[in-house]
Amino acid sequence: MEQGTTVSEEIVRESYSTRFDEYVELFGSTASAHPSDRELVGTWTDTLTGPVLDAGCGPGQWTSFMAGRGAVVNGIDVVPEFVEHARRQYPGLTFDVGSFEALRTAAASLGGVLSWYSLIHHSPEDIQIPLAEFARVIRPGGGLLVGFFEGSTRGPFDHAVATGYRWPVAELGAELADAGFEVIETHTRTGGGYRPHGAITARRLRAG
User: Fold this and answer.
1) Pairing state of beta strands 110-116 and 138-150?
2) Cβ-count burial of 98 within 10 angstroms (0-12 exposed, 13-18 middle, 19+ buried)?
3) Counted domains in the chain
4) Which of 30, 159, 162, 168 is spaced 20 to 30 A from 121 at the CA atom?
5) What average pLDDT score do residues 51-70 get?
6) pTM of this prediction?
7) SS3 139
8) How many whole angstroms separate alpha carbon 139 and alpha carbon 111?
9) Residues 102, 182: one domain?
């Protein structure tokens, strides 16, 4: 796949549906996450005020994790199998099938959005579509946390499920700024059997 070619939601949905059981076994618990990721998501969650959306919630483990920190949180995902699993696994929480490119959420109604590796299949040319939706639904001063594959240059790579994209932290931070966010912190990690990892926490600026 050439750089910049969009991976459609249909391809993403079908690809993850096909490997649903494998994905849940490998990544369906926060216990499988790096300890620093759990610390980051937890401390970030504690800073939020108001409802939180786990955009691209997968099997629901991070939704449950944030709820355990006291957040009022729900999850959405384009993969029905993930949503069905999450509803069974965490019956006290709300999960819906949906696209975060067109959220069924009122403007400026959320205290924060977690997008943990849910933007990895968006090309540089279409990354602003979900970022604009996040900016629309997060109230001024609300938070955004993005986890992603980090790299020295942006571009595609052969992800196990569907084509993924790596980002230099500064370049993805610039995309967040263009969407109306102020970057607060950046994090990177390499080694330990993990792909190079990046994370950015950001704050929604007041429009205008």
Assistant:
1) parallel
2) middle
3) 2
4) 30
5) 96
6) 0.89
7) strand
8) 6
9) no
